[in-house]
Structure formats: structure tokens, C-alpha cells
Amino acid sequence: MEPAKTITAVLFDWDGTLFDSAAASLRAFQKMFCEFGIAFTQERHDELYAPDWYGMYRALELPPEMWTQADRRWLHHYGEERPALIDGAAPTLHALRQLGLRLAIVSSGTRSRIRQELERLELNGLFDAVVCNEDVEQRKPHPEGLELAMRMLNCAPEQCCFVGDTPEDIRMGQTARVLTVAVPSGYRTVELLAECGPDILLAHVRELPGRLG
């Protein structure tokens, strides 16, 4: 799919794409796993991290009956962090708005956390739709979340692009038949994203308005 001027809506992943949560998330995972007697290094994180973090729990052999408690402990530790937007993300979002594009978030994060972060960053009014973990049954790379956001926006796939920082994001966008835009972050390397074959591979999210305008 080639970049098109018919794009009317830009849908974003949140963590790592717009929100600089990689270091804070890692620290929260390390503290949480330590409570369960599991060592969790940066290398192990880079090897195992995926938007479906339960896959990471399985790989680390955390018993399923402990997953709910693990989620609560991660949220507790993450709540002690104060990450901010990716440098340049805020002006990028406002520039897209000035181009007349609608904006949405499709995240694997919990609704309470995402809403709190949007409120703290004074971004609530900027997005026309926000889809979170609780809104779907299937996790990324399944396209359910992206398809729900498009229905909320009343947009067809050919009118949308999805911007993400992980291979799961790109595969989700490809399955949903939208324009896919990859932005490297602390979660994945440029090489892994390039291997997925996104329609557009950016060095930084601030380049996006120039590619869509």
C-alpha cells in the first residue's frame, strides 16, 4: 500500500509510540517480577516483550493463577513513575489536527491508566476515540482493537493509517488493511520493524505530518 492523500484518520499505539514509557515499564516489571522471585533483566525484556504481556508471563513460567495479582503489582509500581510524551509527539499531534485529520488511540494498556495519563498530559480532547485492553477480547496483533476504533470513527480502512512501534502493531495494521507506519522506540529495533514491511518507516514520529500532509 502506498501513502495516500485519502487518509482522514490517524490511529496510534500509545506506549512507546506517543508515550515514553519504555524505561518506566521495564522498572515496573523488574520490581513486580522480583516480588514473585523472578529475575528480569533488560535483555530478557527485549527478548520477550510484546503487547500481549501474558505471553511474557508464560515464557517466565509465572503460574496463571498469579497473573491478576501480577497485573495489580505492575500497575502499582508503574504508578510510582512519571513518564512523559515522546519528544516531539505533542506538536506532531497538533500538526495532524491542523491538517484536518482525526486522531485515535488503540492500546493494550488498561483504560484507567491511559485515561489518567491523557488527563495528566492535557490531551483528552485531542482524540476522537480511545480503545484499551478492556474493550477487546483479542490482543494485538489481532485487529479487533483497530477495527473497533475505525467503527467508532466511522472510517473505512483505506481512510486510516495506524502508527506503532512494535512488530505486533504493524501486523495488526496489515491485517486490518490500513496504511501502516512504524516508529522505532525503546521496545523494538529498527531492524525488527523493517522486517515486518510497514508502508512507511519513520526515524521519528515528528516526521509523520510531512508524510501525510
**Helix coverage percent of residues?**
40-55%
Computed CA radius of gyration, to the nearest angstrom:
17 Å
How many angstroms separate the termini?
A: 17 Å
Mean pLDDT: 92
Structural class designation: alpha/beta
Can you walk through the features of this model?
By secondary structure, this protein is an alpha/beta fold. The protein has two domains: 9-20 and 84-212, HAD superfamily/HAD-like (Rossmann fold); 22-79. Helix content is 43%, strand content 11%. The protein is built from ten helices and six strands, in the order βαααααβαβαβαβαβα. The chain has helices at 22-35, 42-48, 53-59, 67-79, 89-98, 111-120, 144-153, 167-175, 190-195, 208-212; strands spanning 9-12, 102-106, 129-131, 160-164, 179-182, 200-201. The protein has a six-stranded parallel β-sheet. Strand 2 (102-106), helix 6 and strand 3 (129-131) form a beta-alpha-beta unit. The longest helix has 14 residues, at 22-35. The model has no long low-confidence stretch (mean pLDDT 92).
Topology of this protein?
Layout: E1 9-12, H1 22-35, H2 42-48, H3 53-59, H4 67-79, H5 89-98, E2 102-106, H6 111-120, E3 129-131, H7 144-153, E4 160-164, H8 167-175, E5 179-182, H9 190-195, E6 200-201, H10 208-212
Parallel strand pairs: 1-2, 1-4, 2-3, 4-5, 5-6
Helix pairs in contact: 1-4
Task: Give the gist of this structure.
This protein is of the alpha/beta class and 213 residues long. It folds into two domains: 9-20 and 84-212, HAD superfamily/HAD-like (Rossmann fold, 3-Layer(aba) Sandwich); 22-79.
